[in-house]
Design a protein that fits this description.
Elements lengths: L1 E10 L5 E12 L5 E5 L4 E7 L2 E8 L4 E6 L7 E12 L6 E11 L2 E11 L20 E9 L3 E4 L3 E7 L3 E6 L12 E4 L1 E8 L2 E8 L7 H17 L9 E6 L6 E2 L4 E5 L12 H19 L4 E3 L5 H19 L5 H16 L23 H18 L1 H15 L2 E3 L1 H12 L3 H10 L4 E10 L2 E10 L14 E6 L5 E6 L4 E5 L6 E2 L8 E4 L1 H10 L5 H16 L5 H9 L7 H15 L5 H22 L9 H16 L3 H12 L11 H10 L3 H13 L3 H12 L4 H13 L5 H10 L7 H10 L1 H7 L5 H9 L5 H14 L5 H33 L2
Parallel strand pairs: 1-10, 16-17, 17-19, 20-21, 22-28
Antiparallel strand pairs: 1-2, 2-7, 3-6, 4-5, 4-7, 5-6, 8-9, 10-13, 11-14, 12-13, 15-16, 18-19, 22-23, 23-26, 24-25, 24-27
Helix pairs in contact: 1-2, 2-3, 3-5, 4-5, 4-10, 5-6, 6-7, 10-11, 10-12, 11-25, 12-14, 13-14, 13-25, 14-16, 15-16, 16-18, 17-18, 20-23, 21-23, 23-24, 23-25, 24-25
The chain binds zinc ion.
Length: 838
């Protein structure tokens, strides 16, 4: 058992290697022949146990090293294990890695590099040899040798700085609290910072040079969030400081390193001079998610990766709850319901898994960072809070935190404390949701009897493409609103339930949108809802559209029926509704092959979308509702996708005039995507040039998304070649853009052919953990079952078995789309021709 690590890290001048010294205090509980610990890509110069030399044997396959005494076994007791070693500084975000970026110095663009770490789930073993599993908590003393002008940041505050010869210094950090290895963090670079405090906790946000003013929104959000969490958890944040770092693009969204959270700067920084509600919501939500981990995840940690869902589900749920509380105008809960759709789509398929899933070994831990872990996890936590009541739920969380601080738990520990606080059997309620795959379809049937109504609720498992799925049931808390608006709460179990209502008329199930289930109404009740659609609450409309779309994918509803609901929206003002609808239209559009047919479908879409765009217009009006900016962006993007001539003309005019009148941030993604999709050579070159010189992460991101949508095949191919051959983007970002190009423009085939023809080079450019995604992502836009077979065959030929799950998942999606295509494409087309009167 490790108890304490003292680590000294010295990066080499070229920043591609480092040397390390690890002194680890361990306790040996019973005699052992050897000590086994994790290590990847480390070279060992010397290892001793209480100064006695050890022999070293690396096992690359298991990512371990075996240390044995020259003679005899190791007796029980406390020891000091000392290891001198060296390792690699990666170009991808795994372990200690480089981040390359460009900075503007006057008129010049200067290349810069900073160092950062990404340990979760299993990369701490690339920085130091150790027991790299979440249950092996220990304290850490970390020291790093860096060039004198650089700033070093880690989990704890700096405790000492010692000048060294040659313009170097050694920065030592205070001893950490007891924590798992995956939370260890180290950042080194030319950094600025913004400083503040909340409840006596010093806060800093570090940025690269010249960007700290852009962290003001994030700082204000942090203060609001930390103060709320200090109260909610009933325990103050426990470390002596909380730093956050904005790292240039090339890293993932964010990582909850204890006391030193890092973010892709595009997800944290924000130019307040150019306001965008979209960015505010995203930044706020991500900060709340990461800071929630300071308690839930860091202070109390899952014992093993099979309980990862609890960390991620809780943090995601807490983030939504916090945003809803302080910024109700963002309607974060409704947004959360929309994001839940990805999880429900995955969870209704053959390849799904229970949120609590056995993880055989740590190499498979990465497979679990998926929509089911985050989003189904979040939804279940939300249902549980609603089932137990807000106060009882919070009290249970407080007891759990107090009882298990600085230690590791399983889900059963949380259920225990929630049961104690609420007096209910939480484990019995939870088990079907966390241990079974899938979720229920709740069927609502109304019978009118003498003016009153009899409503029958029953459940069955909902699947999209798995008719032979195991039959399962859940304990489903159903909320039902009747024709008078009165609400009824029912716990639906295996047997159908009957409710008598005073009045016959419109009923709505899953009001409040908390339930993780789909609803299917009897035909008459559905007609009533459809007729009332424009007069319902936006949340009711969204729920009906979402469930209808899923039923259409499952073959239980005609695409024409779904599209009629879309047509009935009129000048709908809710951006969540449009976000869903524009995605749904995109899904259907890609199932229609013949150019003439697609043109008809596009013309029908344009006719439906022009009306709501007329309401909001192209320019923000002073004092307009925050939602209008979001609606405007979505409609312009969708109209651009449909090739609407007016939209294209206006977007081009604004793009051409950008020198005199910069495109405002809220509309930028839409304008760039419309312009790129229909770009000629000059526009394409201008976009690429802009991307090369942009230093703002958000602008860069908008340009990347736009270029992925270039629809002219030859131009797209040129862009893919450039992404592969140059270092203009970080390698991870370049591979992401290659595999996601063409998805939005019906050019998925161009991407697939390119990836197939250049597979060794694309795989070599991808990070070790990104490799498994390359083929599945590139194949994804297809609706051709033969592509699915090809994907699986190519994966087996070029990758090891760790990649098979993702390939099967993507192949299953392609086969599902092929089924939907043969059934629904003619129906969607019939709807379009009906609209056009042709
Ligand atoms: Zn998280």
């Amino acid at each position: 058992m490790p108890q304490h690590y003292a680590l000294r890290i010295v990066p080499a001048a070229g920043q591609d290697r480092f040397t390390g010294n690890a002194q680890i205090q361990i306790e040996v509980a019973k005699p052992v022949a050897a000590i086994e610990l994790n290590a990847v890509d480390l070279e060992f110069q010397k290892a001793t146990l209480d100064a006695a030399p050890l022999s070293v044997r690396l096992d690359r396959k298991r990512a371990t090293v075996l240390l044995s005494k020259i003679e005899g076994s190791i007796a029980p007791g406390r020891y000091r294990l000392e290891i001198e070693y060296s390792g690699l500084i990666a170009k991808h975000p795994i372990g200690l890695h480089q981040v390359s970026y460009r900075e503007r110095e006057g008129e010049k663009l200067v290349d810069k590099t900073m160092l950062a770490t990404q340990m979760e789930p299993v990369s701490a073993r690339r920085l130091f040899p150790g027991w790299d599993e979440p249950a092996f908590r220990a304290t850490f003393d970390l020291a790093v040798v860096v060039d004198e002008p650089l700033t070093a940041v880690s989990n704890m505050p700096v405790s000492a700085v010692t000048p060294l010869p040659g313009g170097k210094k050694e920065v030592a950090f205070a001893r950490s609290v007891s924590m798992p290895t995956y939370l260890v963090a180290l950042f080194v670079g030319e950094l600025d910072y913004l400083e503040d405090s909340v409840d006596g906790i010093p806060l800093r946000i570090y940025t690269t040079k010249g960007k700290s003013a852009r962290a003001r929104f994030a700082m204000a959000a942090t203060k609001e969030i930390v103060a709320y969490f200090n109260a909610y958890f009933g325990m103050r944040y426990t470390l002596p400081k909380l730093d956050q770092l904005a790292v240039p693009p090339g890293i993932f969204g964010a990582m909850e390193n204890w006391g030193a959270i890092n973010y892709n700067e595009g997800r944290l920084l924000y130019d307040e001079g150019d306001p965008s509600v979209r960015q505010q919501q995203r930044i706020y939500g991500l900060i709340a998610h990461e800071i929630a981990h300071m308690w839930f995840g860091n202070l109390v940690t899952m014992a093993w990766w099979d309980n990862l869902w609890l960390n991620e589900g809780f943090a995601t749920w807490m983030s939504t709850k916090t945003a809803e509380r302080f910024h109700p105008q963002w309607r974060s809960r409704l947004r959360g319901a929309l994001w839940r759709q990805d999880a429900m789509t995955d969870d209704a398929r053959r390849i799904t898994h229970p949120i609590q899933t056995p993880v055989k070994n740590d190499a498979r831990a990465m497979d679990l960072f998926d929509s089911i872990t985050y989003s189904k996890g979040e939804s279940f936590i939300g249902m549980l809070e609603s089932f137990l009541g807000e106060d009882a739920f919070r009290d249970g969380i407080r007891r759990y935190m107090r009882a298990h601080q600085y230690s590791n738990t399983t889900t059963a520990d949380l259920w225990h404390h929630l049961s104690q606080a609420s007096g209910r059997d939480v484990a019995a309620f939870a088990a079907p949701w966390t241990e079974q795959p899938g979720f229920p379809l709740v069927k609502v049937e109304q019978r009118c009897v003498n003016g009153g109504a009899e409503v029958t609720l029953r459940q069955e498992r909902f699947t999209l493409n798995d008719p032979r799925a195991q039959r399962l049931t859940w304990k489903v808390p159903v909320t039902l609103a009747d024709a008078t608006g009165a609400q009824h709460a029912v716990l639906l179990e295996r047997e159908p339930q009957r409710l008598r209502l005073k009045r016959c008329g419109m009923v709505r199930a899953n009001v409040g949108h908390v339930g993780y289930y789909r609803v299917q109404y009897d035909p008459k009740s559905l007609d009533l809802l459809a007729r009332e659609l424009p007069r319902l609450e936006a949340s009711d409309r969204l729920r009906l559209l979402l469930d209808s779309f899923a039923l259409m994918q499952a073959g239980q509803l005609d695409a024409g029926r779904y599209l009629a609901l879309v047509d009935a929206l009129g000048d709908e003002a809710d951006p969540r509704v449009w976000e869903h609808v524009t995605e749904a239209l995109r899904f259907l559009r890609e199932l229609i092959d013949a150019p003439a047919d697609r043109a008809d479908f596009d013309a029908a879409i344009a006719r439906v979308l022009r009306k709501p765009l007329t309401r909001v217009g192209w320019d923000a009006r002073p004092g307009e509702p925050v939602d209008d900016a979001l609606v405007r962006r979505q409609l312009i993007e969708a109209l651009g996708r449909a090739g609407d001539a007016d939209t294209l003309q206006e977007a081009r005019a604004r793009f051409a005039a950008r020198g005199a009148k910069p495109i405002d941030a809220a509309l930028r993604p839409a304008i760039l995507s419309v312009v790129a999709r229909h770009a000629d050579d000059a526009t394409f070159d201008a976009l690429v040039q802009w991307l090369r010189s942009a230093t703002d992460a958000d602008v860069k991101n908008d340009l990347r998304v736009a270029l992925r949508g270039v629809s002219e095949s030859e131009r797209l191919r040129r862009w893919l070649e450039r992404l592969l051959a140059t270092d203009e983007l970080s390698p991870g970002d370049a591979v992401y853009d290659i595999t996601h190009s063409g998805q939005d423009s019906g050019r998925g085939d161009v991407t697939w052919q390119f990836v197939r023809a250049n597979l060794p080079a694309v795989l070599a450019k991808a990070s070790p953990r990104g490799r498994a995604w390359v083929l599945p992502e590139a194949a994804q836009p297809s609706a051709d079952a033969a592509r699915a077979d090809e994907l699986v065959a190519l994966t087996k030929q070029h990758l090891d078995s760790g990649a098979y799950y993702l390939a099967e998942k993507s192949a299953d999606w392609i086969r599902l789309r092929a089924q939907v295509k043969s059934r629904e494409a003619p129906r969607a087309l019939r709807w379009a021709r009906g609209i056009l009167g042709t």
